[in-house]
Automatic annotation (TrEMBL):
<comment type="subunit">
    <text>Monomer.</text>
</comment>
<dbReference type="InterPro" id="IPR035684">
    <property type="entry name" value="ArgRS_core"/>
</dbReference>
<dbReference type="Pfam" id="PF00750">
    <property type="entry name" value="tRNA-synt_1d"/>
</dbReference>
<dbReference type="InterPro" id="IPR009080">
    <property type="entry name" value="tRNAsynth_Ia_anticodon-bd"/>
</dbReference>
<keyword id="KW-0030">Aminoacyl-tRNA synthetase</keyword>
<dbReference type="InterPro" id="IPR008909">
    <property type="entry name" value="DALR_anticod-bd"/>
</dbReference>
<dbReference type="InterPro" id="IPR036695">
    <property type="entry name" value="Arg-tRNA-synth_N_sf"/>
</dbReference>
<dbReference type="GO" id="GO:0006420">
    <property type="term" value="P:arginyl-tRNA aminoacylation"/>
</dbReference>
<protein>
    <recommendedName>
        <fullName>Arginine--tRNA ligase</fullName>
        <ecNumber>6.1.1.19</ecNumber>
    </recommendedName>
</protein>
<dbReference type="InterPro" id="IPR014729">
    <property type="entry name" value="Rossmann-like_a/b/a_fold"/>
</dbReference>
<feature type="short sequence motif" description="'HIGH' region">
    <location>
        <begin position="125"/>
        <end position="135"/>
    </location>
</feature>
<comment type="similarity">
    <text>Belongs to the class-I aminoacyl-tRNA synthetase family.</text>
</comment>
<dbReference type="Pfam" id="PF03485">
    <property type="entry name" value="Arg_tRNA_synt_N"/>
</dbReference>
<dbReference type="Pfam" id="PF05746">
    <property type="entry name" value="DALR_1"/>
</dbReference>
<dbReference type="GO" id="GO:0004814">
    <property type="term" value="F:arginine-tRNA ligase activity"/>
</dbReference>
<keyword id="KW-0436">Ligase</keyword>
<keyword id="KW-0067">ATP-binding</keyword>
């Protein structure tokens, strides 16, 4: 039982003893004491005035006296207006540390057979180009969210829907046929996703040249775009693909496989994985079936041109297209089809989509449609909506090839980490292999932490140089503190000091040490809060605050040089548990922490 729970029970007993009335647990509000007052926890007394029939100060004084006499964990108290500030005894803090020390996975709740199943969709790449900085934010958020939802005792299925069909894919295919001279990943030494992406850019370049040529002949921009032979060829290719043309389908399969191999390598580097991948080429037909079924049941209606629509005006929205007049499907149709396949594969209790905020309206509509079509989790689906990520230089465009490529970014982060670590002498005395591994851990940690510490809903600017700083609110600063604690623990072990499973309670703690235990204990509540709010940034910023607090403690107090043996062992145990919580917290964000640095 933690300190707060113990106090709540004692307060309820005290109110019964003092005023003869039972009070519900919900009325007992404990909060952290504000910095400017003395104490650790503050009890709000106002809800009890009706039963005490006394003023706030007097009521607080009486409850304080009762607790000091009857609750061993209360060492002292003071009253400020209607607030009772309680100072917790050192022995209670050490007991709390012992509880945390005994729990290897402190703050993490394991799922059981009866836990709800949450499916989380993230990544959702197109197969006509490599993953870029926007995908990096999406993947890191999706992966962290999956870890956090799992740490709150849910079963989780991580899933990806690959956008592997449509006009954009045909553009890359056509450009490869026309200008590729049979180039392959093997012949060129390029990753497959980069190779296909280069042809997407090539298509755009040739298309723009064609349009410019036609405009010189007196056409408007719109006429020229409609008349472009290249664009018409791409459209014809799409029609052939839909009709199952064997030649087009075989080229499509070949080029997509190049892309998947490339994606897999990038996912591996990022430390991201999926339990199940769905492909739009399989799901869009399922979606059509569901829409036709909805049409028969009268949920949807058909226009004279044969297109199928949903009327969402009763829900305060507009009319939404579900099937075009030529029978081809739109994104919404595909999402309905994917939902159908997923529901057949898994008994989903909750569905979370990690998709950028430009799709907010799409998911509002999808939720209503899935609910109408009888998907139990439709109504309560969560659109985890996040903002754009840009570089200090500004916006990115994939058609023009000005996108920041995920692979290049990861490579740049790792080499910057190596440079910075070398300059600071943090890789001295390590083998080449160890130095390379630490550069990888630090570079990726810097990237992940910088992106995840920002509230996901906000647009953000990613600054590679700033992210790799070893000071301030950065991944490397947190990783370095973890490595520093590991070094202290190694020295203690070399000196033959053993940290017992239970620290004896007889020592007096300083305010800084008590505060640090309180912060470590907060981790469980932080994980819960991050799960309720779907917010990885809560864990990132908590971890930074904890590390900052520990560094002050490390600076102000001796650990290995402490002469009192019991105090030395306590400080080692405290350091070990700070490191454990840092490792668990960073682990939830998908970030590794190195033992040496």
């Amino acid at each position: 039982m933690n300190i707060e729970d113990k106090l709540v029970v004692s307060v309820i007993n005290g109110l019964k003893a003092l005023y003869g009335q039972d009070v519900p647990v919900a009325q007992v509000q404990l909060q952290k004491t504000k910095k400017e007052f003395e104490g650790h926890l503050t009890l709000v007394v106002f809800p009890f005035l009706r039963i005490s029939k006394k003023g706030p100060e007097q009521t607080a004084q009486e409850i304080g006296e009762y607790l000091k006499a009857n609750e061993p964990s209360v060492a002292a108290f003071n009253v400020i207006k209607g607030f009772l500030n309680l100072t917790i005894a050192s022995s209670a803090w050490i007991e709390l540390l012992n509880n945390i020390h005994a729990d290897k996975q402190y703050g993490i709740i394991a799922a059981t057979d009866n836990s709800p199943l949450v499916m989380i969709e993230y990544s959702s790449p197109n197969t006509n180009k490599p993953l870029h900085l926007g995908h990096v934010r999406n993947n890191l958020l999706g992966n962290a969210l999956a870890n956090i939802v799992m740490a709150n005792g849910n079963k989780v299925v991580k899933t990806n829907i690959v956008n592997d069909r449509g006009i954009h894919i045909c553009k890359s295919m056509l450009a490869w046929l026309k200008y590729g001279n049979g180039e392959t990943p093997e012949s060129s030494g390029k990753k497959g996703d980069h190779l296909v992406g280069d042809y997407y850019v090539a298509f755009d370049k040739h298309f723009k040249a064609e349009v410019a040529g036609l405009m010189e002949k007196g056409m408007t921009k719109e006429e020229a775009e409609a008349a472009s032979p290249l664009m018409n060829e791409a459209r014809e290719m799409l029609v052939k693909w839909e009709a199952g043309d064997p030649e087009v389908r075989s080229l499509w399969a070949k080029m997509n496989n190049w892309v998947y191999e490339g994606f897999d390598e990038t996912y591996r580097k990022m430390g991201v994985s999926f339990d199940k991948i769905y492909y739009e080429s399989n799901t869009y037909l399922e979606g059509k079936e569901k829409v036709v079924e909805g049409l028969e049941k009268g949920f949807f209606y058909k226009k004279e041109d044969g297109s199928v629509w949903a009327d969402l005006t009763p829900e305060g929205l507009d009319h939404k297209l579900l099937l075009r007049a030529d029978g081809t499907s739109v994104y919404m149709t595909q999402d309905i089809g994917t939902a159908k396949l997923r529901f057949a594969d898994y008994p989903i209790d909750k569905m979370i989509y990690v998709v950028g905020n430009e799709q907010n309206y799409h998911f509002q509509v999808l939720s209503i449609l899935l609910d109408k079509l009888g998907f139990e989790w439709g109504k309560s689906l969560v659109h985890f909506s996040y903002g754009m990520v840009e570089l200090p230089e500004g916006k990115m465009k994939s058609r023009e090839g000005t996108v920041v490529d995920a692979d290049d970014l990861i490579e740049e982060m790792v080499s910057t980490a190596k440079e910075t670590s070398n300059e600071l002498g943090k890789l001295d005395g390590l083998t080449q292999e160890e130095a390379d591994n630490i550069a990888r851990i630090v570079g990726l940690g810097a990237l992940k932490y910088f992106i995840l510490k920002v509230d996901a809903r906000k647009n953000m600017t990613f600054n590679p140089k700033e992210s790799i700083d070893f000071n301030g609110n950065t991944g490397p600063f947190i990783q370095y503190t973890y490595a520093r604690i590991q070094s202290v623990l190694r020295k203690a072990a070399e000196a033959g000091i053993v940290i017992p499973s239970e620290i004896p309670v007889g020592i007096e703690l300083s305010e800084k040490e008590e505060g640090l235990i309180q912060m470590v204990a907060d981790f469980a509540a932080v994980v819960k809060q991050a799960g309720e709010d779907y917010s990885p940034s809560i864990i990132a910023n908590y971890t930074y605050d904890l590390v900052k607090e520990y560094n002050q403690f490390y600076h102000d107090f001796s650990i290995l040089r402490e002469e009192n043996e019991a105090v030395k062992v306590f400080r080692l145990a405290l350091s070990e548990n700070v490191a454990k919580v840092v490792r668990l917290g960073m682990g939830l964000l998908g970030i590794e922490v190195p033992d040496r640095m």
